[in-house]
Design brief:
The protein is an alpha/beta fold. It contains six helices and nine strands; from the N terminus they run ααββαβαβαββαβββ. It has one domain: Rossmann fold (3-Layer(aba) Sandwich). The relative contact order is 0.13. The structure holds S-adenosyl-L-homocysteine.
């Protein structure tokens, strides 16, 4: 008997979770959050059937929804718990924020395209993710009124060390960001040493769209 579309999707989901585990995303809470977040809600119509593939996909405004493996890796590297207040820079589709919302207390997310922000807000409402607070603005500046944060995740490539964002982190906080100017950047984890310094660890090479200055003039 042939399988229904939802059976197919169930298999795709299971296959993705297994692939992430094999690649080193072993945190069960992170895997659980990915498994129960319908990625097809965050992908454009043209790519719906690829929603559970382990690949980045194009979204509106020339941006991308990250590859699930990278979402898993970055979420795991943040070492979140239910008390964490997290700042995300680059809401995009809202997928990463949705994952973070299931792993932390409050998620603050900033996006420089109004359209992306609005669409992401609709998705959060639909999924009843009430612990995500959105802002249209330049994420490079962080969110001073809400700082300091326990955790910060940057999902666009910072050309240099993100010092302004590091300044909005608690002394024992963790920040994960792609850093570099070229098409390939390094994913860096900064862990506060509690005394104003940071332990820096390079996780892997990644390809993110750049963190741009200011808000977008177009919608
Ligand atoms: N986290 C997203 C993927 C991010 S793609 C997701 O899960 O879908 C990177 C996003 O960062 C894009 O939407 C881009 O518009 C945004 N961005 C780039 N520079 C920014 C800035 N200075 N402030 C806020 N958002 C920015």
């Amino acid at each position: 008997m042939s399988k229904t579309p939802s059976e197919h999707e169930g298999e795709d989901r299971a296959r993705l979770i297994l692939a992430l585990r094999e690649q080193g995303v072993t945190d069960l809470k992170v895997l659980g959050a990915i498994e129960k977040t319908p990625r097809e809600l965050f992908t454009p119509d043209l790519f719906k059937d690829r929603s559970w593939e382990d690949s980045a996909l194009p979204i509106a405004c020339g941006q991308t929804i990250s590859q699930p493996y990278i979402v898993g890796l970055m979420s795991q590297a943040l070492t979140l718990d239910r008390r964490s207040r997290v700042l995300e820079i680059g809401t995009g589709s809202g997928y990463q924020a949705a994952i973070l919302s299931r792993l932390s207390r409050l998620v603050y997310t900033v996006e420089r395209y109004r359209t992306l922000m609005k669409d992401a807000e609709d998705r959060f409402r639909k999924l009843e993710l009430t612990n995500i607070i959105t802002k249209f603005g330049d994420g490079g500046e962080g969110w001073a009124e809400q700082a300091p944060f326990d955790r910060i995740m940057v999902t666009a490539a910072a050309p240099e060390e993100p010092t302004r964002l590091l300044a909005q982190l608690k002394p024992d906080g963790v920040l994960v960001a792609p850093v570099g100017k070229g098409p390939v950047q390094q994913l860096i984890r900064y862990a506060g040493d509690g005394a104003g310094g940071f332990l820096k660890e390079t996780l892997c090479d990644v390809r993110f769209v750049p963190l741009l200055d200011g808000v977008a003039r177009e919608l």
